[in-house]
Amino acid sequence: MNKQQEEIRKKSPIQVKNRKASFEYFFVDEYTAGIVLTGTEIKSVRAGKASLVDTYCYIDRGEMWVKGMNISPYFYGSYANHEAKRERKLLLTRREINKLEEATKQPGYTIVPTLMFIDEHGRAKVDIALCRGKKQYDKRQTMKEREDKREMDRAMKV
After folding, report:
1. Is residue 1 pLDDT above 80, yes or no?
2. 3-state class of 155 per DSSP?
């Protein structure tokens, strides 16, 4: 990811993060994908009414899909409002999809959305990561490192 892409993410008014993913997985490779939204979904995303908790991606017939993403129905929507937890298509290049498909065939690897944001053109984007699951002792090590960092920050402030 280059510096310009990082600046876009930081400037985005909406950033929906999957905090649990970094605790549960090691990130091997990261990609940015567009997401196909219908009707009032983009309005709900811009209002910050989205959640990436317990979401994952899978590949079906050469297309990438995200399952479990919750985008709440738009408050001012009518009878044509969207379903909250439907499967949504992700937009990646054929080469990226093929690479991810080969990687997920290996045991222990999965694809998880890590961040949803609005780019400078007003389109919803999703950062996805090819992940390898952590073992219990890896999670303990992550917690210990986090505690140590907090202690150091507290010591610096005093």
Report:
1. no
2. helix
Structure tokens belonging to residue 132 = 């390898």
The alpha carbon of residue 141 and the mean position of all alpha carbons in its chain are separated, in whole angstroms, by 23
User: What's the distance, CA 137 to chain centroid?
Assistant: 24
78-128 confidence digits (pLDDT tens): 777 777 788 999 999 999 999 999 999 999 899 999 999 988 888 899 999
- For the chain, how many residues are written? 158
H/E segment holding residue 135: none
Q: What percent of the chain has pLDDT over 70?
A: 92
CA–CA separation, 34 and 128 (whole Å)? 10
Task: List, in sequence order, every residue forming a beta bridge with 30; answer none if it has no partner.
Answer: 129
* 139 Cβ contact list (under 8 Å, min separation 6): 23, 24
How many whole angstroms separate alpha carbon 64 and alpha carbon 57? 7
Query: How crowded is the C-beta side of 158, counted as CA atoms within 13 Å?
Result: 6
> Rounded to whole angstroms, what are the CA distances from 114 to 11, 69, 129, 134, 144?
17, 11, 7, 16, 22
For the full predicted model, state whether its pTM sits above 0.70.
yes
15/51 Cα distance (integer angstroms): 10
pLDDT at 72 over 90: no
